[in-house]
Structure formats: structure tokens, C-alpha cells
Amino acid sequence: MTRITVPTPTHGYAPSHSPPDVHYAPGLGLARGLGWFSIGLGLAELLAPRTVARWSGVSHPGLIQAYGVREILTGVGILSSSRPAGWVAARVAGDALDLATIGEAAYEDDEQRRRAGLAAATVAGVMAVDLLCYSELRAGEALEG
Predict the structure, then answer these.
(1) pTM (predicted TM-score)
(2) Which of 14, 28, 44, 107 is deepest in the core (most CB within 10 A)?
(3) Dihedral of alpha carbons 45, 51, 57, 59, sign
């Protein structure tokens, strides 16, 4: 009887035949960071709506609390999903809603207008990151087929 031997690789470990890491995708790390950011922001809006309203120039603390709930739900959605692109798209939609709400505050007095301008610049910056993340996640999904 002839015995067949299979040479072992010279690098010291056998090749892996396991599936690729399905938890890696372009933008996934950024999405996770945005998920935690959403939860943190949502908690601030929910627990300190008057402070957030005063800072942003928006004079509707009840609306700020509702936006806080939206942020928390979106953050949990991002963190619990293996494909969070839809949840990141919800963040982008929330950013647009935030900008519209802040825009309404810009018609008030000079101090509220200044605060609203700063808040709008902040939200626009976050929206740019959200859009970048969404774009990366969608590109990764397209590569998967």
C-alpha cells in the first residue's frame, strides 16, 4: 500500500478554508461609531432637552426629546444590524429634519440666529460624515452582489 503525504505549508500554519470575515465591510467601523454617537446624542436630547434647545437655538424642548428618541432608535438599529446602511440612511434623513428645524430658529432674534448658525454648521458636518459612511456601506454591499 502506498502512503500519500501532504506537505505542510512552510509558513507554519495550515490554510484557512473558513468563510471570509463577514463583519468587515468598508464603512462598518464608522457606522458603529455613528451608532454610539446617536445613542449619546439621543440621551442628551431626551434627558436635557432645554439645554440642547438653548444651545441649538430651537425653542421646542418637546420636539428635541422626540428627536432624542429617534437618535437612540437609530443608534440601536445601527449597532444591532450586520448591514446598517439603511439605518445610516435614516441618520441622513434625521440630519435633514434637524437642519429644517434649526432653520426655523434662524428667524428669531440675533442670539438664536447665532446659535442656530453654529448648530446648523455642526449638523452639516455630521451629515457629511453620515453621507460618507452610507456611501461606503452601499459600495461594500454592491461588491458583495
Answers:
(1) 0.79
(2) 28
(3) positive
Per-residue model confidence as pLDDT tens for the chain (145 residues): 555 554 545 544 445 454 544 455 678 999 999 999 999 999 999 999 999 999 998 889 999 999 999 999 999 999 999 999 999 999 999 999 999 999 988 787 888 889 999 999 999 999 999 999 999 999 988 877 6
d(CA 52, CA 40): 13
The answer to whether 75 and 36 have CB atoms below 8 angstroms apart is: yes
Contact by Cβ (8 Å): 94, 71: yes
CA distance 10 to 25: 31
* Residue keyed to cell 503525504: 5
